[in-house]
Records
---
Amino acid sequence: MFKKVDKKEIINMIKKDREITYPGEVIASGYEYLTGEGCLREGKDIIAIRHGLVSIENNLVKVIPLRGVYWPRVGNVVIGQIKDVIFNGWLVDILAAHMGFLPITECGEFIEREDLLSLYDINDVIIAKIKRIQPRSIVLTLKEKGLGKITSGILIKIDAAKVARVIGKQGSMVNAIKELTNTKIVVGQNGLIWIKGPNADMELYAKEAIELVAQNPLYDGLTDKIKEFLKQKISKSK
Amino acid sequence: MYEKRFDNRAFDETRPITAEVGVIENADGSALFAFGDTVAIAAVYGPRQLYPQHLQNPEKALLKAYYDMLSFSVPERKKPGPTRRSIEISDVTTKALEPAIMLDKFQNCVIDVYIQIIQANASTRTAGINAASLALAHAGLPMHDLVCSVSVGKVGDKLVVDLTKEEEDYKENGVKASTDVAVAMLGKSKKISLLQLDGEISKEELLKLIELARKACEKIYREQIKALKQIKQKWV
Amino acid sequence: MEISKITKETLANLIKEGKRIDERKLDEFRKINVKLNISKNAEGSAMVEIGKTKVVAGVKIDLMQPFLDSPDEGVLIVNAELLPMAYQEFEPGPPGTEAIELARIVDRNIRESGMIDLKKLCIEEGKKVYAIFLDIFVLNHEGNLIDASFLASVLALLNSYLPKIEKRYDDLVVVYGQKTNQKLPIKKIPFLVTCYKLNGKWFLDATLIEEKAAEAKISIGFSFENGKKIHAIQKFHGLIDFDELENIINLCEKGCMEIKNSLKNNLKI
């Protein structure tokens, strides 16, 4: 009736969690698994379709990409740069495969149609949220707390795939950096990050810490290492 | 009679393979691939905006490969700029890579792959395809499979794998005695995505050569996987 | 992404205090990494990395008829390409203004410093001379392309060997792929350094973001072996005050010293 399952088979069924995989590799085998992002099912096997890190949690199999152009999702907070105006809004570069578009109706201010550039000029930088995704453009909105134009501080860019690591589980990583450097940090899902601190030094320390996270995403105990790094840097400067 | 290979390799042996990812920082993905002293670098930018608009495809991304050689990669200087040869190779390279990538996951955009040969000793297009395949995977693009490519051929009376320039130019009694076949196949499914031939060969010999290419591609596939799995775990 | 006003403002504020975003000093270079002989098929070649900027240069030598105005001299032809793989905004196509300018500045400093004894490259006056083709390719752009390109060029030339030549059908030709053990006749080693201005302060080795924020830019070429001499200057955009000139020259000279030291450590030159 029941097929006797070999102990070895059970061990072999859970494959490759926390390992780096490549497109085409079988990363788990068995019908009890569900496919998340970065993989698909082929009969009994689940196959990676991207280069990245395998994550198997509660039977959900995912491949977390290590690199890649930002892939926009509705609800993402992104940082973008105004590139041009058209009659009903601004074209915004959000470093994705398509341009972002901020319609006048979503800019959160009352404005005349002729006056667009006086509100947001070419090369201005804004924090926005993705409202809707269309075939050739990504519609943005500023109608929410915390969104709008950036006027000071520093902007840095990391690989979009590293954003999750920089934020950390429930914000643990970015909050640690914020606390230790007394800075405000907004992490755009597209890899652009805004840092505003009490002075340039703190902003630079926060920047260095973030870049270290982005360069060492797979390091075990990264949060502690970053905390240590910042504490040393700050005490040295005193 | 071609008794022994100029570099003493076995007839079905490739030159030592070097494969490495992340060689061009600014690119979304990049890789170096070498067969012995034939060295290729590939860099991928994409998916990104495609202009002019009339080239955009609402159903999938456009893949465009550009193959070229550095002027000093070859013994006689190659004038910079595309040649008829490099345009042809760019096109067959694009066609060799397309089937491996899930282009329909994107709309109205382009994936650019730039391939440069740094040092050439024949089999440059195959080294280029191997580098490009790694660069595309490194860029995190959704792919069905990797693409593996190798040259095979008949030198004198022997069927060989991974030809050098000397073997490509091999003559017997002043007459060309070398046939060169470029093959690319998907690493897992082994389906052929590039096939070009230059010379004179029988049907049986060709089928044997494809079989030799299959075996060689298994080795190339392993080296590509190794390169992708080799991400530094040390503190930078 | 075009440098935004915020980033430019931050960089300007930092530099007013003598600080830079990567904590370097104003006259400090990033880590310089050098590799020779990157293509066996070149008569000479080199790769230079300054920080993340990566440039390769290679020399190919052939024979040709000399130019009419210098019948007893070898020919030097310098070409540069900003490869599309180097930066999101570089497009495929023939060299644009930036690439042509890069090639011409490198050419000027090498030629005017007399680095190569072109007279020794004459085989038959008016008929046959050696032609040196120096090709520069930028592989990754993280700022300061000129300094990296010049260093790669000098190293490629310093390590170039003349090719074998032979008589074929009554003409003298190069045997492609075969080198002699005769190096190019080098008289001296020139240096070229670029400095940039932001918020009144001049600095060396700009990263890409610093380069985009810079208000002015100037490259100066030197040689030191027959006394300190300046052989080439190229000013780019922006304005320079008369009383800034001496400072700029001193700063560039300091930069040359740093490159010289880096070469000593890297290659024992």
---
Amino acid sequence: MYRSHVLVCGGTGCTSSGSQQIMETLKVEIEKAGLQDEVSVVQTGCHGLCALGPIMIVYPDASFYSMVKVEDIPEIVQEHLLKGRVVTRLLYDETVTPSGVKALIDTDFYKKQHRIALRNCGIINPEVIDEYIGTGGYEALGKVLTEMTPDDVIQCLLDSGLRGRGGAGFPTGLKWKFAKQNDADQKYVCCNADEGDPGAFMDRSVLEGDPHAVLEAMAIAGYAIGATQGYIYVRAEYPIAVERLKIAIDQAREYGLLGKDIFGTGFDFDIDIRLGAGAFVCGEETALMTSIESNRGEPRPRPPFPAVKGLFGKPTILNNVETYANIPQIILNGAEWFASMGTEKSKGTKVFALGGKINNTGLVEIPMGTTLREVIEEIGGGIPDGKKFKAAQTGGPSGGCIPAEHFDIPIDYDNLLSIGSMMGSGGLIVMDETDCMVDIAKFFLEFTVEESCGKCTPCRIGTRRMLEILTKITKGQATMEDLDKLEELCYYIKDNSLCGLGQTAPNPVLSTLRFFRDEYEAHIKEKRCPAGVCKALLSYHIDPDKCKGCTLCARNCPNNAIIGSVKNPHIIDADKCIKCGACMEKCKFGAIYKQ
Amino acid sequence: MKSLEELRAIRERVQNQVSMRAEDHAHTRVVVGMATCGIASGARPVLTALSNLVQEKKLTNRVAVTQTGCIGLCQYEPIVEVMEPGKPKITYIKMNPEKAAEVVERHLIGGHIVEEYTLNSADIK
């Protein structure tokens, strides 16, 4: 038995900042101190505070070390693990207060969070099935198989109010009910782990930190709808997640928690992994199933819905990773427990990936109905460098922007839809006053143009035409007629596209047009980018009163566009200037400005 | 594994270790002085004994065993402090694994302070 557990984050974020080396050094140092029988080193999934990685937590004290370096390890082992003196200077500074060390659950980042889908992420070793079982894992599957009928399971989900966490928010219980009603010799349970929205990584974190929760939920789904085979469609760009899923499936099979006659109840269920090759459209359910069938990943019209005719033409349910991660907890704690959290029509919690102009970049799980202000100012720690909040983008390329005037909106499915955005898979990108909304819309359109599969014309050609108009706007070459045409195209593409990708692709444009039309008009009428982002509309200048003639800018200009002699004010040759901003960054006197 | 009983047996075995990784204001903290003075007078076996017993007796969901540095009473080491939320701190002195077992049994489980081992009972001049 170990008296202390040292948890080191092995999620993608912390792995890329060097947590593997930290783990190795830790083991070596612990052995040197002769503590190997007293202290165990545990690799876990993501804790959410990715901005502060690599992260290490020492239990039972719950000391939270952030941005740990290999050089710090000997000191932590000698001082903390051996002598019990917490190395305060290496702790997450939020936890260090004048009156002593504050508990992690009291910090702003964690205080308002409520972790259900992420409950084991960062707590257990995802590669050891026993640890999952130790937190009550597979208990829900046991309960379902021995005490509940398939209808009970579906009723429980319906009562809980759980809605799909992949974006559209369709009630999960209803989906299962439809699939159960359709008789067939074979049915399938699929898991959509083709997380593609730029900036969203909650599904990856669940798969990396708690893969068994997904397997258990899929087996429960199999029992509920009468399926014996499951497929997890996961992106090949998630190597750690794929590896841990493989380990988890092997361990579950070994324990008989997947396979034939589970718990001696006669129920058979097995799961296989299918790797996606990185096409965004394969996150769309019909395209995903087409891809599993080894065909080119293209969507097809619905109906028939997958619950009627899905994978290999059989009734199929397809849920997102985060949706599955909630299910074992709902079965164990009851529908009322889950329904007690959240808002009237959106129950439970939602995981968001905070990114962009925000201090605490990372993963947070909050009850539905938490306001955007709480998420950004309290949990996210506000916007860096004292800049002003401009908008938050949710729902990735399918979503829209929430402007400052809706800062106090409680986040749930219906509220976001009502202001022209959507929940999406939960990417939340924060933008400040230095972000240009036209440029943001253009960024997402570039993404959809790239990812449009090309099967239907509105999406294939329409999005490209939209991007052309947006490019014209950012270059200051557009007219007001172009803006009208852009808006018209948006509605046309929304109405006529085959699948969700095209139907939602105009959203970033529509929502920025709705809230920031003045910015579009400034680009068109005044040939000016108010945020100072669009290069074609900018020019750099040197204020002759402030310039000391130090020549630093001229020496750093990559295109020799700055002329002037020592101790005399310099000038920028507008013809040569490539608007890289290097001069402005280097100037020590604040003499360079853009307009 | 063919039965729920087997699953529960695994859970039983692992639960006490995993539940150490929680943070709760209701936890009783048992702190062992592990500075040079503490280690020299035998604090380490006391610490391991306490930690093992707390896990064996399935107390990890409400008791956390940790170490601390020198408390300043080096002649009374090994020192163990028990801090229950909302109660005054109890300091046990000159501990050994056997006494530690008694503290777990009588104080942490039974709820009665083992007066004869406390600092209060010692004759401090």
